[in-house]
Fold:
Amino acid sequence: MPNPEILFQTTPEQYKHWKLQLDGPVATLSMDVQEDETLAEGYKLKLNSYDLGVDIELADAVQRIRFEHPEVRAVVITSLKPRIFCAGANIYMLGTSSHAFKVNFCKFTNETRCAIEDDSLHSGRRYIAALNGTASGGGYELAIACDEIYLVDDGNSAVSLPEVPLLGVLPGTGGLTRLVDKRKVRRDRADVFSTLAEGLKGKRAKEWGLIDDYFARSKFQESVDARVKKIVDESTSTESGIKLTPIEFESTADSRNYKYVKLKLNREQRYADLTVYAPEGPQPTTGKEIQELGAAYWPLQAYRELDDALLHLRVNEPLIGLVCLRTQGDAQIILDIDQTLTTNHDYWLVREIVLHMARVLRRLDLTAKSFFAIVEPGSCFAGNLLELLLASDRSYMLKDSDARVAVSDLNAGVLPMSNGLTRLQSRFLAEPQKLDEIAGDKKTFDTDEAEDLGLVTFAPDDLDWEDEIRLAIEERTSLSPDALTGMEASLRFAGPETMDTKIYGRLTAWQNWIFQRPNAVGEKGALTNYGKPTQAEFDFKRT
Amino acid sequence: MPNPEILFQTTPEQYKHWKLQLDGPVATLSMDVQEDETLAEGYKLKLNSYDLGVDIELADAVQRIRFEHPEVRAVVITSLKPRIFCAGANIYMLGTSSHAFKVNFCKFTNETRCAIEDDSLHSGRRYIAALNGTASGGGYELAIACDEIYLVDDGNSAVSLPEVPLLGVLPGTGGLTRLVDKRKVRRDRADVFSTLAEGLKGKRAKEWGLIDDYFARSKFQESVDARVKKIVDESTSTESGIKLTPIEFESTADSRNYKYVKLKLNREQRYADLTVYAPEGPQPTTGKEIQELGAAYWPLQAYRELDDALLHLRVNEPLIGLVCLRTQGDAQIILDIDQTLTTNHDYWLVREIVLHMARVLRRLDLTAKSFFAIVEPGSCFAGNLLELLLASDRSYMLKDSDARVAVSDLNAGVLPMSNGLTRLQSRFLAEPQKLDEIAGDKKTFDTDEAEDLGLVTFAPDDLDWEDEIRLAIEERTSLSPDALTGMEASLRFAGPETMDTKIYGRLTAWQNWIFQRPNAVGEKGALTNYGKPTQAEFDFKRT
Structure:
């Protein structure tokens, strides 16, 4: 049974599983999962367990707080269910999902948690996990994504990562890396904690650094409130937000067209053309004008559309193995926009817009599909759109033509990869002096210059162009998709590692592995047999 | 058909696949793989392809050069086969091996390559890959492990990583990480190179940074010789080596006993006791005395035995999931030895011994089995042996007893993990001030002190001791071995990442994943069908 297409857009009015309450500088996000409101059939979302649909709402809420409610300084994440904060990813959902879906689900939930951390780090909002009941598995991992964790002390509520003992899989959405790298829990304690199905309660959980504090049930709300009050007393904001209007698109069987992003699916050949269009006409140049334009401002609208297209490709189009990234329009307009974003970078909305662009580009880096950038006359791989080229696995640029690529200040730092470097830095690890050359007075480069500078991979001339691109596409889509996924994940992230790259690179890989082991998903595997009268049986050979 | 037990010991006289030639400061290691001398049945080692047996000889040769021939300053790795340097890991061997064996094979070959890099970094020997023929796959990866790569320019010889296009698996033994991190090859070029079955020849290979230079066949030998001469002219050594005598052991069906290391296999319960014994009697205190004692000196002999026991457990005992690490003997003797090693650290042999200890301990960190340290009266978890405890996933220390643990200078830096930190630093990421407390005047700690300092996980008293250990063992060995492997690999390496941790953590995980995908090892997988008239057929869904 093919699942229906998954949509990544929602609004607070449509939320089924979360309540977003706003009270001046404090936002409260309360989880109240409706067990029958699932994305697919075959499971119920009991005990505030979640599926992708629940996490799509959470991602939307975090995004909306940033754009629509910049006055918010503290976000409290809590539960409306008695005695349970969140039971983590739904096990029956995992048990009935395809391998690819499980992996994409984990990736998306990680991106949501990284988005929380991004908001905390760059926009200074403080996230408080108010665990008014047990937080287990992904529930506890959601708590770790927050800045502070408070647990109710009622003799019952605990934090736990029960996946290893109960399900034979890794705590799935980044927990182990965040556990030892972010919270720096001592490794032997992390070992004990991660093998203890029932988890740990208040006192010991605090002693081991798993939570920041615990309070008796009668004092819980007031203690959390007091902490939140302290945060908002110390940090105020008088900005007022913009409305994130719905992203509109038209779709056919083999296309999805947004205003600035067009996706064409060449299903037979298993590749897609994804084209980003520059805007036309005059663009705002001041913070005030940008605020007035709101979600229709190109850098926000185009990147929201791009984000949606990437998520759509990941989850709804698994057979598309290669995406040809194209751009079209006036490069100068893009460069002018970058100039505006740079000049107004201290304006809250501009900062949020640029941070959003950075997140979308990281989503691209982390997408398990090949990307080729195709640079032709009429394209506008300039400034922020040059990042599409730099994020690609390869690029092709037509020789002896009007095609140009161009750099702007936005290529120099504000759109970092998960490894903390810019894409230019990652590209030129061996030749850092190239960065100075590229950042020199000359900002726009023709094909020969781009090739000399190392900005593009291949520069075929007009005679070879079509054949070369066609052959490259054919060759790429003929290769093992699994080998490509592993290869690209390795080659895209040279250089330093950060918590984020560890989470995605290491843990996702391990989880990918474990998610297809018979000990997890085989007939006798622990994931398969969870909640059934039958018991898991393991092949105890260590690998 | 169970494979015969694999032995990890050999000597140059026994080598089947390599010739080790010594000429003063120059060692030449020539690969000449005998195609019928395989470790298992079902494949032939054509074209200098290798199986684990070939790599065991290489590892032995590198180790012997360090200890037996400290006068060597340059090691040339080349081939005795016409037109082929090395074709990499044997594909039919991979195709007929179990998943666990493949993973262990990749890990061991990586450790061998890291040992080459360790020698280069710490002992200053320069490794030259003299590619007098094509180096593909693991053959090229062996070249990247060297400091310099020279390729013959004969219109035919190339370097290549053909695994993705030909086999549907990752270049297996670290190639991609070394490619972009060590050689810093630009990511789009690395992408092209890694998907190009035929690889690249001299000029372009040099341009892309894949090799350091290329020479016509007629000039190849003299050009390499000239480079080697330059190296040895700049660096001389007049030390003379010691003999690495064979490691002896007696074994029964459930034990393997070396002189200082005893392994007891509790097969029914799927765990092993591995006990390291302190030496008895007076120990040498000067470099000269150590040199006279040679391979019989405890820090060298005990760690060589430990290394052999770990490799044996990994490859020959897959059903053993847990190793209880124990020590026995006089802790003061261990501390005195550490003092001697510290005092004489400038003496070449002492430096080599300590570097060897560090490699063995890293082998332990990277072993996919659970480790519990058991600290009882009569044990000697002191100084270098305390590292066994710190490397363990957990530790148990008997309360109210004579049991003690102790630190020495060797815990403070010279035995780093793959992440570049000491095991104490990794343990106390959240509380670095503990490092000062532990390194204070008091060096020996009883159970209460060790628990307070956070050196041990649990400290049961006499009443609970046996039950608690027994239950912990039973519980651990009941868990999914795959989930444990992923969990331990994540928890052991918090903190910074290095090229080594990237290789092991990221790539091994990806390779683990790809090695069990149907697209590689299924009936229609590329690895299964390599060299057969049938063609691979892929499920093109991207994960």
In short: The longest strand of chain B covers residues 271-277. Chain B touches chain A through 92 residues (CB under 8 Å).
